[in-house]
What we know:
Order of helices and strands: HHHEEEEEEEEEH
Number of strands: 9
CATH architecture: Beta Barrel
Number of domains: 1
Helix content: 10-25%
Distance between the termini: 69 Å
Amino acid sequence: MRIESRWRWAPGLVLAWLAAVGAAAGQMIPMDVPGLTARADVIVHAQAVSATCLRDERGRLVTRVEVEVRDVWKGRVPGERFTIVLAGGTLGNRRVTVPGQAQYVPGEEFVGFLRWNERGEGVTVGLSQGKFAVSRDLADGDVRVWNPFLGVPAGLGGEAGGSLTAKRSGQLTLGDLHRQVEASRP
């Protein structure tokens, strides 16, 4: 009986171990702006125009996001519009997700830290770390940016009923980010 009671815990231990391994695999080491800048071939302030999911030449689901460039902070782009490619997406009733990957929504303004792949498509540096969402504060006109590790999303961290200001802890303005990129470039 003792042997049986010991082995009853085995499935639970295996599941706990698998959960721990999965959690560790999904963790990212945060990169600062100089680290993102160093790894990026190009840094753009842009807007997502469209997103299309399809199968690539190997049959994998990929999402291609067409972006319109507002400003180039580092590197060169092939024109006013180019494509960012992401692994996964939704096609029909099939969905593939990559934990921690950046998401681009048509109409969304962002700053992207990108590398070029062999097909000349942009790939976001550090998964979601290489994409900063841009939001505009209607009350004070400040333009703020954030990603999962840097900056605070609009509407979080401010005073109840009050406007967020760029001087509040954790806030990062578009201008602040641009200055940090410029200071990080060789």
